[in-house]
Amino acid sequence: MRMTDLDVNFVRENFPAFAEQSLQGQAFFENAGGSYTCAQVIDRLQRFYHTRKVQPYAPYAASQLAGTEMDEARQRLAQLMGVATDEVSFGPSTTQNTYVLSQAFGQWLQPGEAIVVTDQDHEANSGPWRRLAERGIDVREWRINPTTGTLDPAGLENLLDEKVRLVCFPHCSNVVGEVNPVVEITAMAHAAGAFVCVDGVSYAPHGIPDVGMLGPDIYLFSAYKTYGPHQGIMVIRRELGMQLPNQAHYFNADVLYKRFTPAGPDHAQVAASAGMVDYIEALAAHHGISGDLTAKGSGVHDLMRAHEVKLAAPLMDYLQNRNDLRLIGPTDPERRAPTVALDLGRAALPVATALADHGIMAGGGDFYAVRALKAMGVDPAKGVLRLSFVHYTTEAEIQQLLKALDAVL
Predict the structure, then answer these.
(1) pLDDT confidence of 264, banded at 50, 70, 90?
(2) Which of 81, 87, 120, 405 could form a Cys-Cys staple with 211, CB 3.0–4.6 A?
(3) Burial class (CB within 10 angstroms; exposed 0-12, middle 13-18, buried 19+) of 367
(4) Which positions fall inside the Aminotransferase class V domain (predicted)?
């Protein structure tokens, strides 16, 4: 029988951090900076280093096992996201993947052609694209509402014309938290003849999406924020990927997943990324979710989101009842990821430091979203207090957070 509520106790059994003695009594609210790693990933990483730490794809047994596990990670992640296996690439980070992509577009675009970026982004999905202005590319900025932080699709419509070749935007911002309508925005861009690049770093930890259904040409996220190793994962659809100039060794030009990986991959971490799918499958089996991997991923995504929305509700209520801070982004938990940034009107880092004394692990700063903060009138030097959680957070930890905020604010 399918369970309708997430079994948080089962979830936490899959994360060794919750059994770690040194972390007892501490509630983790800086997941947007990097999540705990699930046991399945740790087990695969340990096994690889113990028994497969050799050059992969050679004819001897250990090497064959290494290559097979790397291929398995790519294949199963692709199935999970509803895309073809060779449309999934690995890199050292999402920032690096985006930089490589921007170099490819810089070689491909002609002076006078245009791209669209936003001021809602983390700098990793903004800065590399903006630098293309140095090559004569027209860089147009889709700006957020300075009060709400929202990206209005009508604002994008005013920027689109026959010169726009690429539209870059976040699935959700790492400070605003609002979930952007990817399907709607992608359809608008495609109708205007533009490709679409979505930064999913701040969304994927709340449920790895069905990228095939969403429709963008590029989707990027970070495995280390999604219970995995420190890798950047990139989907680039074949139609676009084979048009862009090859960024890897010339003899790899015909292999889509190698075209945007100029350096050799981290074999062990690529192989360990399959553990992220192991974890999703374990959740699906425990909760009675069946079907192919894409269907299982969608079902687990919905369970995670429902649990996070439930936990965010009391936090949103609490914050709205305070008059000594500004909540960035929507107050409706259904419209946002549980990445909650607070403008305190003073330096945020000392407040985060004080929260640590109450067992709350949180962060204060600009979180590389300087453009977004400035656009909303927040002083980046003071920054925001960011409270971010995921599906393994419990109701008791939310209550611990609220008590700590009472004491510190």
Answers:
(1) confident
(2) 81
(3) buried
(4) 28-401
